[in-house]
Amino acid sequence: MNKVAFVLSCLLVIVACNNNNSKKPTMDTTATLSQTNNSIQILVDTLGHHTDSAASEYEMGSGLITRSDCLKCHNVKEKNIGPSYVAVAEKYASTRANVQRLASSIIKGSKGVWGEVPMTPHPAISEADAMEMANYILSLKGIR
User: Fold this and answer.
1) What is the spatial distance between Cα 80 and Cα 97, in angstroms, rounded to a whole number?
2) What pairs with residue 110 in β-bridges?
3) 144 pLDDT tier (thresholds 50, 70, 90)
4) How far is CA 127 from the centre of its chain?
5) Is 92 helix (H, G, I), strand (E, B) or coil?
6) Which helix (H) or strand (E) holds 138?
7) Model pTM?
8) Residue 113 gets which letter from DSSP?
9) Which residue in 10, 85, 86, 130 has the fewest CB atoms around it within 10 Å?
10) What is the three-class DSSP state of 119?
11) Distance of alpha carbon 118 from alpha carbon 113, whole angstroms
């Protein structure tokens, strides 16, 4: 989130500097807006196609996973004891039903979905946090 704020601040400074009141010929508003939109699109692409709001949610889910014991069994891209988060994202469409399904698996555990090794339940994780974690995992679809 801090990176997003920093980059947006830099963009605002650049736009403000380009709009000074000197006698130089100025760009028309359409061209300035187009350049600003292009800069914002580059920022969004750099953040992995997440909007500011989605980037915040992405960071929240990622942070919850980092602070839990999930990374003992899972990795983002490679299978460990459990499947990679990318593999989970590839298996499930990003729907509310699947977010709830994955959140339930995080809290209650699961067995037989990805093989013989059961997923340990995490009853101390709230449903809201489990859903943030599931949203983060599903956002990783297509990551290589």
Assistant:
1) 26
2) 119
3) confident
4) 19
5) coil
6) helix 127-138
7) 0.62
8) S
9) 10
10) strand
11) 8
